[in-house]
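Subject: sequence -> C-alpha cells, single chain

Hey, anyone have a minute? Need the predicted structure for the following. Not urgent.
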Amino acid sequence: MPVGSPGPDFSGRCSIIPITLGMATKTPATTSSAPKTSRASKTSAATRKSRAVVRDVEAGSSVDCSHCGERVKFQAKVRNKQVICNIYVSGKWNRVEHFHQACYEEAGNPFGEAEVGTDYRRQAANAAAAERAKKLAAESAEAQSA
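Reply:
Had a minute. Here:
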C-alpha cells in the first residue's frame, strides 16, 4: 500500500499511514566521489584587489556618489558616465562604491585607473541593433527596386 494513502479501514473514516514512515531519515553527505572545488580557490588573494570600471548610468539607478554625496542620475538625452569600484580588503570583497566620472578623477583615482570599454553588454546590444538596421535597409532597398 502506498505511503500517504488511506488504509484498509472500512468504517467510513480514513486511516492514513503517516508519510514519515516512508521517507529517508538520512541523506548521503556527498553525491559524488570527486572533491568539490570552491570558487575562491581558483583565484589567489593577490589577484583579488580593488578595481574600477566606467559604465553608463542606467535608468532606475539610485546610488549616491562616494565623493560628493549627490545622486548618480540617469538622464535620457545625456549619456552620463559613472565609475563603479569593487573594493577588496585583505583579498576579500568588502563593498561597491559609485562615483560620477568627474568626481572619481577629482578624488585622484582612489582605486586605480578606471577601465573603459569593458562593458560587453553594450557591445552586444549595439551589434544587434546594427544587424537589425542592416537587415531593414536591405529589405527597404529590395522593396524600392520591385
